[in-house]
Design brief:
Belongs to the aldehyde dehydrogenase family. Keywords: Metal-binding, NADP, Oxidation, Oxidoreductase, Potassium. InterPro entries: Ald_DH/histidinol_DH, Ald_DH_C, Ald_DH_CS_CYS, Ald_DH_CS_GLU, Ald_DH_N, Aldehyde_DH_dom. The protein has 477 residues and is of the alpha/beta class. It is built from 15 helices and 23 strands. The protein folds into two domains: 3-247 and 452-476, Aldehyde Dehydrogenase, Chain A, domain 1 (3-Layer(aba) Sandwich), CATH 3.40.605.10; 252-433, Aldehyde Dehydrogenase, Chain A, domain 2, CATH 3.40.309. The protein has helices at residues 38-56, 60-76, 78-89, 93-114, 152-163, 177-189, 204-213, 226-238, 261-273, 290-306, 325-341, 374-377, 393-401, 416-425, 464-467, and strands at residues 3-4, 6-8, 11-13, 17-22, 25-34, 120-123, 129-137, 140-144, 167-171, 197-199, 219-223, 242-246, 252-255, 285-289, 344-347, 364-369, 384-390, 405-406, 408-412, 430-433, 449-450, 453-454, 468-476. Strands 15-16-17-14-13-19-20 form a seven-stranded mixed sheet, sandwiched between helices. Strands 10-9-8-11-12-22 form a six-stranded mixed sheet, sandwiched between helices. A three-stranded mixed sheet has the order 1-5-4, with helices on one face. The longest helix has 22 residues, at 93-114. The radius of gyration is 23 Å and the shape is globular. The N and C termini lie far apart (66 Å).
């Protein structure tokens, strides 16, 4: 079987390899992917540093053309790349193709942004002096991505980094190297100069740590667990390095008495259980007022009965497998914790056997939960949702905000008054009204508050805040 190698200084570099296993069929090896070393990482950093002076001064048309080519090829290969994503991560094929299309759109957007680079020219308060305000590339960017969106998240970090003239050392999650390798291969063939984009696949404790230890990495953008994010922050402060963190979430979906029941159920089911609940924006806390509580629980339970859990590649599957055995154990451990805490297991919670061996788990709904239970406070990152009964809107809002996280929040209501108040008073970075909490457009800012995020927002024009440094220049006329 072919070993998919790391890309360092424009060359494909061989090394030991690890198996990429399909969570829908653990008998299938998706591919063999390089297992990079600390030395590989240091070589990649050196290559990115050497390539930075020329790339940072490259023409905007060159950047535009390369990013546009990448976006076009991803779109042309959406079915192929979507199938690869579904096989290596376990997301259903329609979701995987949708994510691939989003990656293409992200490259298209930043291809356009490359042509819209701008600054300001303003007068000084002193006579005969002009002031120019511009944005310079940051330098060598370390990119560390998670396994749950293996093509979209790399895209929304790599595309702006290149658009604004930075060079890159990229470490994808160990579980899902395939889509990342494909993106890097596409960009490499699109004409990126040697050393501008370097791929080092491997263990976080090896590759990631080497990136954190290097004083030549001038910025790190990280998406992953809260614990690892704190280590990225600590190491970056030591090097006076700019860093951007996207971490955990325990997102609330509020359902008020006046909600359209069908809309509320659809939003809750999508938010909590689609993508196997493996989204940082998933709403794993449903906060429901008393008047609609019983009807909502009954309707949501009926909805869950219709959802098909099966092989991600199989037509008609709504929910694919959990990504791997370790995450499956985390999910089942939390199900046991919920039982012991006194929450009522209203639906699911059982392992499932399917035609192919995989990590299949029923969508799991706990009712009679409280906001103090561990299942309501800690991120599980699986199809496990706790439902909390509250008296009224005021208690619902307070409960929604009572969390150490603040990424996304939703509300189901037909009241303009409550929708408006919730948008203004939710302590989350993103708020949805009568929509799932997961699902953000590619051209708008993505990010949260409190323990969910740190640093400038990702995506859209706001990406410039992280990937550039502002320069103010004065000229005597």
């Amino acid at each position: 079987m072919t070993i998919y190698q790391n890309l360092i200084a424009g060359e494909w570099v061989g090394s030991d390899a690890t198996k990429n296993i399909n969570p829908s069929d653990t008998n299938e090896v998706v591919g063999l992917y390089a297992d990079g070393t600390a030395e590989d990482t240091r070589n990649a950093i050196a290559a990115a540093k050497a390539a930075f002076p020329a790339w940072s001064r490259s023409g905007i048309w060159e950047r535009h053309v390369i990013l546009k080519k990448a976006g076009d090829e991803i779109m042309a290969r959406k079915d192929e790349l979507g199938a690869l994503l579904a096989r290596e991560e376990g997301k259903t094929l329609p979701e995987a193709i949708g994510e691939t299309i989003r990656a293409s759109q992200i490259f298209e957007f930043f291809a356009g942004e490359a042509l819209r680079l701008a600054g300001e020219v303003i007068p000084s308060v002193r006579p005969n002096i002009g002031v120019e305000i511009t944005r310079d590339p940051l330098g060598v960017i370390g990119i560390i991505t998670p396994w749950n969106f293996p093509i979209a998240i790399p895209a929304w970090k790599i595309a702006p980094a290149l658009c604004y003239g930075n060079t890159i050392v990229f470490k994808p999650a160990e579980l899902v190297p395939g889509c990342s390798w494909a993106i890097v291969d596409i960009l490499h063939r699109a004409g990126l100069p040697k050393g501008v984009l370097n791929l080092v696949m491997g263990k976080g404790s090896v590759v990631g740590q080497a990136m954190l230890d290097s004083p030549d990495v001038t910025g790190i953008t990280f998406t992953g667990s809260t614990g690892t994010g704190r280590r990225v922050a600590s190491a970056s402060i030591e090097h006076n390095r700019k860093f951007q963190l996207e971490m955990g979430g325990k997102n609330p979906m509020v359902v008020l008495d006046d909600a359209d029941l069908a809309v509320a159920v659809e939003a809750a089911a999508n938010s909590g259980f689609f993508s196997t609940g493996q989204r940082c924006t998933a709403s794993s806390r449903l906060i429901v007022t008393e008047g609609i509580h019983d009807k909502f629980v009954a309707a949501l339970t009926e909805k869950l009965k219709t959802l098909v859990v099966d092989n991600a590649m199989k037509a008609g599957t709504h929910i694919g497998p959990v990504v791997d055995e370790k995450q499956l154990k985390t999910d089942t451990d939390y199900i046991e914790i919920g039982r012991k805490e006194g929450a009522k297991l209203a639906f699911g919670g059982e392992l499932i056997t399917r035609e192919t061996p995989g990590f299949y788990l029923q969508p799991t709904l706990f009712t009679e939960a409280t906001n103090q239970m561990r299942i309501s406070r800690e991120e599980i990152f699986g199809p496990v949702v706790s439902l909390i009964r509250v008296r009224d809107y005021e208690e619902a809002l307070a409960t929604a905000n009572d969390t150490p996280f603040g990424l996304s929040a939703g509300i189901a209501t037909t009241s303009l008054k409550h929708a408006t108040h919730f948008k203004r008073n939710s302590e989350a970075g993103m708020v949805m009204v009568n929509l799932p909490t997961a699902g953000v457009d590619f051209h708008v800012p993505f990010g949260g508050r409190k323990g969910s995020s740190y640093g400038p927002r990702e995506q859209g024009k706001y990406a410039a805040e992280f990937y550039t440094s502002v320069k103010t220049a004065y000229t005597l006329a």
